[in-house]
Design a protein that fits this description.
By secondary structure, the chain is of the alpha+beta class. The protein has helices at about 5-20, 25-30, 80-100, 115-120, 120-130, 170-180, 205-215, 275-285, 285-295, 315-325, 330-340, 380, 400-410, and strands at about 55, 60-65, 70-75, 105-110, 130, 135-140, 155, 160-165, 185-195, 255, 265-275, 345, 355, 360-365, 365-370, 375, 390-400, 435-445. The protein has one domain. The chain contains 13 helices and 18 strands. Strands 7, 11, 14, 15, 17 and 18 form a 6-stranded mixed sheet that branches. Helix 2 packs across helix 7 (about 205-215) and helix 4 (about 115-120) packs across helix 5. The termini are far apart. The structure holds protoporphyrin IX containing FE.
């Protein structure tokens, strides 16, 4: 009996939610995940994952992220918001009793988009919306296109994005089924899948093996030890924001209002980026790849994949301008560091001292072979292709959307003091951008765990 279009789509959706598809390769090729700490208490934050292991590479501390990642975006289908809130809370409670908040268990982070706050809880949002003191705006902003983005980058309007992270594809499939198949409150718009890991002397690099097995062009050029497709480690501990730094309340960027409703919350940016592996490895030799990814003038031993990014290595606006004047180029990390590192020591209200040069953004990005998604409710709009393509689902937690916008502008040579370095979009001198193409973007607000289900609906 011939399936209707709706039945076919529903079938494909269920398959995409559960099955790992091409990502089964990750388990088969990735070997056993690392031992993880045992943690039972749930942090008040949704975006903080416990039990992240720290290893050393080239004498540098590197965080070991979870192996598997899945991000599901959706619009709300529900009529009765309070009922939906109870149902979702129930499903999340079931998952949190079943899995520890560690890579060995499952990390669940729910981010809510501006369409949800404007269309479903508008009055409460006007009262409780967190405000960005520095940008004099809401802490949650509409996504925008950046100078190096192509004109067709889609600025998305989802109500929700759910990030699932674990060393086990089964745990992720269980959660995706519980939230998006068993519950009937969301209309899924896309499913995005990927992985991070391996390499760094702990067995062959997973990105390389998976890209090779999937027949992605340029895969054979990826360094054996590399944690990521583009050949360099990007989870040095010093380059990642420490535990609570991206919380709304920590750095004082955000006015949470009298109710403090969103305390322990944060903002999340989600984008999909294609990576042209052949252009990167054939047009840039090793020396140029290092100074493009990090900063002009840096030199390291051939084939190094992990490069120190401690506070003493951080570049200032003046240094980035001088590097550009002398070489006509900017480095990915150096240019971003003009906005992603603390300009001076900061003592948070809980007494934690964050030293000058401490990183602020907490990145959770992962490599993918999605083209550009594993599944889309609107394949035409999303430009879905069947063949695997190298890329990144870029996910990052910042204190505010504007804080992320400052990082991303600096990546294009637009520095925080307003200087616009004269670099054409995606020019060879503009860091990684020459081999990247961003297809989709959206900003989300990640409420604290106690308000993660349909925030403000109870008010
Ligand atoms: C697909 C592309 C990308 C790749 C392969 C990539 C890779 C890297 C690498 C290797 C580093 C240096 C390691 C480190 O300092 O931790 C880094 C740093 C960083 N990247 Fe990217 N990145 C990509 C895209 C982006 C985008 C789109 C952003 C958005 C702003 C971004 C933000 C950052 C930040 C905030 C840092 C840390 C800078 C610091 O404070 O030291 N990256 N990235």
């Amino acid at each position: 009996m011939k399936l209707t279009r709706r039945e076919a789509l529903a079938g494909a959706l269920a398959a995409a939610l559960g099955g790992a598809g091409i990502y089964e390769l990750v388990d088969r090729l990735g070997g056993s995940p690392p031992q993880r700490a045992n943690v039972t208490t749930l942090p008040p934050e949704q975006h903080v994952l416990e039990g992240l292991e720290v290893i050393q590479d080239s004498g540098i501390d590197v965080l070991v992220p979870p192996l598997h990642h899945q991000l599901v975006t959706a619009r709300i289908r529900a009529g009765d918001l309070r009922e939906a809130q109870r149902e979702l809370d129930g499903a999340l409670g079931y998952l949190e009793r079943r899995y520890q908040p560690t890579p060995a268990g499952l990390g669940i982070t729910m981010g809510w988009g501006l369409p949800y706050f404007r269309e479903h809880v508008a009055a409460a949002w006007r009262t409780h919306a967190p405000r960005d003191r520095r940008a004099r705006s809401l802490a949650l902003l509409e996504a925008r296109r950046f100078p190096s983005d192509p004109a067709d980058t889609v600025l998305e309007q989802n109500d929700i994005a759910v990030l699932l992270r674990s060393d086990s594809t089964d745990h992720i499939a269980d959660a995706a089924r519980a939230l998006f198949h068993d519950l009937r409150i969301f209309e899924v718009s896309s499913i995005r899948k990927g992985f991070v890991g391996g390499g760094l002397g702990r067995g062959p690099s997973l990105p390389k093996k998976v890209a090779l097995a999937a027949g992605v062009s340029g895969a054979d050029l990826i360094p054996d030890k590399s944690q990521l497709f583009l050949g360099f480690t990007s989870t040095q501990r010093a380059g990642m924001g420490p535990r609570r730094i991206a919380n709304f309340e920590t750095l004082g960027y955000v006015d949470l209002g009298p109710s403090q409703y969103f305390r322990h919350g944060t903002s999340m940016h989600v984008s999909h980026i294609f990576e042209d592996l052949e252009a990167w490895y054939l047009n840039f030799d090793f020396r140029e790849r290092v100074l493009t990814a990090f900063r002009p003038g840096i030199s390291v031993t051939f084939d190094t994949v992990t490069i120190r990014q401690d506070p003493r290595d951080v570049s200032t606006d003046a240094q980035v301008k001088r590097q550009f004047r002398d070489t006509g180029r900017i480095g990915h990390s150096a240019s971003i560091q003009t906005t992603s590192r603390l300009p001076r020591d900061h003592v948070a209200e809980d007494g934690t001292v964050y030293e000058k040069g401490t990183a602020i953004p907490v990145r959770a990005d992962f490599n993918t072979l999605d083209n550009p998604f594993a599944w889309s409710a609107d394949p035409l709009r999303d430009g879905m292709q069947a063949s695997p393509a190298a890329g990144v689902h870029f996910v990052v937690f910042n204190p505010t959307s504007d804080d992320f916008h400052r990082n991303r502008l600096a990546m294009d040579g637009v520095l925080p003091d307003g200087t616009r370095l004269p670099l054409p979009a995606r020019a060879r001198g503009q860091g990684f951008n020459a081999v990247l193409r961003t297809t989709h973007r959206q900003n989300f607000l990640v409420p604290p765990r106690r308000h993660r289900s349909f925030p403000l609906a109870e008010l």
